[in-house]
Amino acid sequence: MANKKIICSSCGTEFLFEVAKDFECCPVCGVSFEEEVDEVQNEELMYFDQIFISDEKPELNHVSAYCKECETINCLDLDLFDKLVDKKYGILKPDVIVKCSGCGKEHTPRKILYKRKDHYVSILHYCPVCNSTMVKKISTASRFFMAATLGSFAIPYNSKTYECQNCGHVF
User: Among candidates 130, 118, 124, which has minimal Cα distance to 162?
Assistant: First the structure.
């Protein structure tokens, strides 16, 4: 049987279950493990599924977090985080308050957990070349303008739906 781990939602410290059951609270930050479980069940609003870091365009660096209430994808700047552990969790800085851009609700815990969101695969909101979530839908007006200026040379562009803002790939 694999060792079960418990991660403190306040400070992000990992403990083996056998060690954590001997304590009533986290020995690092003092938050009780029962409070931590209730807090995660009641107040978790956002989850993340991708950390994007680009050396060529650092202004596009972000964490893709989605809201469980309205299922809006929020791009959070890397400067908002004290600690990021890919495919596990992210700890927000103490003075940071994150609000969902869709429903406006506040994410109150400092910790944002990782959960893989399968909707990216089904509706293609990521770039197939660089896996960035910074994609925009090509508007009808843009397609019309391309057709008017380039004529039949715009057919390859007009048959595409999305354009990646990171690498420029059109798909």
Answer: 124
Q: What is the dihedral of CA 133, 116, 112, 35, to 10 degrees?
A: 170
Q: What is residue 32's DSSP assignment?
A: B
The H or E element that residue 106 is part of is strand 106-107
Cα–Cα distance measured from residue 35 to residue 16, given in angstroms and rounded to the nearest whole number? 18
**What's this model's pTM, rounded to 2 decimal places?**
0.47
The secondary element (H helix, E strand) that includes residue 140 is: helix 140-150
pLDDT tens-place string over residues 13-37: 776 655 555 566 676 666 665 544 4
**Beta strand pairing call for 5-7 and 14-16:** antiparallel
| 46-52 vs 111-114, strand pairing mode | parallel
How many CB atoms lie under 10 A from the CB of residue 30?
Answer: 10
Based on its alpha-carbon atoms, the radius of gyration of the chain, rounded to whole angstroms, reads 20
